[in-house]
Specification:
The protein is of the alpha+beta class and 123 residues long. It has a single domain (5-121), classed as 2-Layer Sandwich (HIT family, subunit A), CATH 3.30.428.10. The chain is built from 2 helices and 5 strands; from the N terminus they run βββαββα. The chain has a 5-stranded antiparallel beta sheet with strand order 1-2-3-5-4, covered by helices on one side. β1 and β2 (21-25) form a beta hairpin.
Length: 123
């Protein structure tokens, strides 16, 4: 039995896909519409992917961003990877977070993803 939840995604949960990646909503979203781009091949680290896998994952990321523009009309986005335990990775399978943002959805969004290290958030 495979313990990786990303290796057993239900077809009904897939928003879109290509030959190398799938897009699904995050089960614990940071915002409405938070989507994950997940590689089909089980690889833990982004830097282990082939160039073609990276290109196709980003192609799907772009496609999902365009769909979100229409569906959620966000004011901005955060895009990110968590790589390794120290980087906050809890599911050891490559995935890209696409997080739509709205003005005022956080008290102070200055610094964006730097907020993962609190002292870096406001500079």
């Amino acid at each position: 039995m495979n313990a990786c939840p990303f290796c057993s995604i239900l077809p009904a949960d897939i928003l879109d896909e290509n030959e190398y990646a799938v897009a699904v909503r995050d089960s614990f979203p940071a915002s409405r519409g938070h989507t994950l781009i997940i590689t089909k091949r089980h690889v833990e680290d982004y830097f282990q992917l082939s160039k073609e896998e990276k290109d196709k994952a980003f192609e799907l990321l772009e496609k999902m961003k365009k769909a979100m523009d229409t569906e959620f009309a966000p004011d901005g986005y955060n895009i990110g990877f968590n790589i390794g335990e120290a980087g906050g990775q809890t599911i050891l399978h490559v995935h890209i977070h696409l997080i739509p943002r709205k003005k005022g959805d956080s008290e102070n969004s200055k610094g964006g993803v730097k907020g993962v290290i609190r002292r870096q958030m406001s500079y």
